[in-house]
Amino acid sequence: MIKFENVDVVYPNGYKGLSDISLEINQGEFVAIIGLSGAGKSTLIRAVNGLVPYTNGTLTVGETVVDPKNKSKLRKLRSKVGMIFQQFNNVGRISVLNNVLIGRSAFTPTWRSLIGWYGSQDKEVAFQSLERVGIVEKAYNRAAALSGGQQQRVAIARVLAQDPEVILADEPVASLDPPTARKVLGDLRTIQRDLGITCVVNMHHLDLARDYADRIIGMRNGEVVFDGPTQDATDSVIADVYQRPLSAEEISQAQGDGRLGAGVENPTESDLTEAVTAASSDSDRKDTV
Ligand SMILES: Nc1ncnc2c1ncn2[C@@H]1O[C@H](COP(=O)(O)OP(=O)(O)OP(=O)(O)O)[C@@H](O)[C@H]1O
């Protein structure tokens, strides 16, 4: 489904963010990416939808070769690859429902999505998506008025409304308290199991990765140093990924924040808009009204 073949990412300043990555992620897997700050987790995830362009090798999602230079191909890819971020990236001043409808942009002519004119079928999909994450009663609230956990659920519902094959989640629970983090990961897990959507999730806490993922990929210095089923990711294996024993905070989110620093630059507004609104100008999209 997602296939990295000898993929490198070299940033414009010459820094090698990913080095010779070869791996395959199958349709319907729930994969956690772990590793120290700066290991390359965000770079790996963002390469999949072209937010970070890879500079060598081949990266494919399904039948599509990710081509960061081909904007129209990229938009089409992003319509099938939803992305959620640590900071939710909802539009705070508009309603929850309208935020979720943004996920329908790929199915709506550009001029109509620009004025927020979505058809009844789109609204039905949006309501179903909100129901799936348990916040349908918030549909007409302003997104900014919701709690962090609810806002992340809005982001998940928006991605679901895209009808994605893959959900990429770049530290989706890093801003949430431990119980809320578990609820949000539980939603993602249910979505993956019920709908067969592939989930690739960056996480800072080993206990969350172990509790929710089928498979763990451990990264260090831009390389994959562990890749296996979750049950094989023992403490000693993970200590090897980190090259030292883990602290209690790194193992369990309940022990504290556990973050060790900042990662890739925040994406620009336009990158985010593109990543979440996907293929709104593709010629083969369907008008659903
Ligand atoms: N735009 C950029 N230009 C140059 N180097 C970058 C850029 N973005 C990231 N890097 C570097 O690439 C490396 C990998 O960063 P990345 O954010 O992918 O790591 P991470 O494992 O996700 O870290 P964190 O857990 O802190 O988010 C880091 O050393 C980082 O400083």
UniProtKB/TrEMBL annotation:
Residues 2-246 form the ABC transporter domain. CDD domains: ABC_PhnC_transporter. It comes from the Bacteria. Keywords: ATP-binding, Cell membrane, Membrane, Nucleotide-binding, Translocase, Transport. Pfam families: ABC_tran (PF00005). The keyword Glycoprotein does not apply. One of its GO terms (cellular component) is membrane. GO terms for molecular function: ABC-type phosphonate transporter activity; ATP binding; ATP hydrolysis activity. The keyword Cell inner membrane does not apply. InterPro entries: AAA+_ATPase, ABC_transporter-like_ATP-bd, ABC_transporter-like_CS, ABC_transpr_PhnC, MetN_ABC_transporter-like, P-loop_NTPase. Transmembrane segments: none annotated. Residues 251-289 are annotated as: Disordered. This is Phosphonate ABC transporter ATP-binding protein. It comes from Nesterenkonia salmonea. The gene is phnC.
